[in-house]
Design goal:
By secondary structure, the chain is of the alpha+beta class. It contains 16 helices and 20 strands. Strands 8, 12, 13, 14, 15, 16, 17, 18, 19 and 20 form a ten-stranded antiparallel sheet that branches. Strands 1-3-2-4-5-6-7 form a seven-stranded mixed sheet, sandwiched between helices. Strand 6, helix 7 and strand 7 form a beta-alpha-beta unit. Helix 11 runs antiparallel to helix 13. It is elongated and about 85 Å long.
Amino acid sequence: MEGKELVLHYNEGKTEYCVITFPGRFHTHEAKEKFFGGNIFAKNDISSIGLTTKIDNWFICDEIDEFIEKIKEISSKYTKIVAIGPSMGSYPAIKYSKKLNIHRILSLAPKWTIDPKLIHSEPDKIRDGLLSDDMNSLIENIFSDEKSGHCIESGDVNNELIVCYDTYRKLDKFNVQKLRTIINFEEVLFPKCGHVIIDQLQGSENLLKIVHSLVYDDIKTTCELLTKIRRSHKNKIKKYYDVAHEKHPYYCFLMMRKFIDGKFPGYKEFLLKQNTFSNLMDKLVRNGYHALSKEVEFYFRNKIISESSLDIELEVGSNYRADIFNIMDYHGGRLEYSLRAETLFASGYFFGGRDLAVNVFARKVNSDILLVTIFDGQYFYLQFENGKIRLTRFMNDPSVLKLSPKKPPQQNDFFYENNFMKDIFRVVTPYGYMMSPPDGNIVFDSPNALPWESFSLHPPMEDTPPPAPQIRTAPTLPEEIRMPVQQVPKKKARFLSRFMAS
């Protein structure tokens, strides 16, 4: 069924219950083709209904009553009906739950209303909260006079409702507070996850578990399941890492180690994205925790090698060199030299690197800390010449690149004020400071001396000779059942064998 703005999808499965879903914003381009969860439900023979919209209208339009009646007609034959609505989709999931006789609703980051007049009628503190974050932009792009007066009211819900939201997002927090004065519900907190809560619940297996719990479990059990999925979801780990890795790098490492050791879905993504760990190492050094930086490196090396080993655990040595240091930028990129391009770049690879690239190290010579690379056991120093990085055997060349301790803090430098700039160095070129942006393409003429122009040093692991190869031996048979070779009866040669031997 398709109208001017709305599209109704229906998949008749083999279940006695039915799932109704409403999508969030920014899915209008696929409104005619699919609906949230539709493919998963169809694959598992789950009866499902999806109401989609071709424009972000908050499901407030002239057609809505007609479509709600059609959904009611289709779903009336099912013993239970559950609904899921993320973001914009949470509004119709709650608003029409009583009309549709929905047994239980899962609402992700709902809003009470998008009517600015209703919002402005609230007390100052509530009003300011309801207009925070991107709400003014949402009103400007979506609200129209025909949507005036529409909001969630006390008579809209008569069954069980679960609301998930991020307590650190002001707009969502105040909408939940407002809804709490109107309707009753259970809440599940998703701290530091942002507005798009559905990202923390992604995955076919997770969606099926949630639907099963919405239908068969009590509401407390469903809330516990949602919390469990959030805690072990890869997107939650990514979100927490993005938020906390600068201030709390070691806690981020402990979180990721637990996730990887538990082999939760998606754990290999963190191992393959090598600079996730090197970034933590850099931040630990900047905060003065050199020993913990080595612990992170040792774990990562051991884990990634063990993943490719037939052995359960592959031991990796933890002896470090004292004569040279790896150089790492603010984003966890390891400094390398490109023989092809004759320049420096920051590599996101812990093992290996780009084509025709070699590691760049810091080497202390007398009172200087020089940039060097190593070929066949010989040191070559890096010098800046006509916009290119050249190699030289002479350390006393005035154009050789050197690392210098941090300069005095510049005014209004947030990172200095928050003690992120410990034990770091900068590279001064003839044109300014060497800078490493997130893409790793080094710039040599930055006028600033801020975090992106700084580097931390990390001792590389000692290259030790490999141990003698282990030889797998066949199990030894007990003495009493061994048969000497001369006692093994010989088989009589067949005709073809005798013919070939003649």
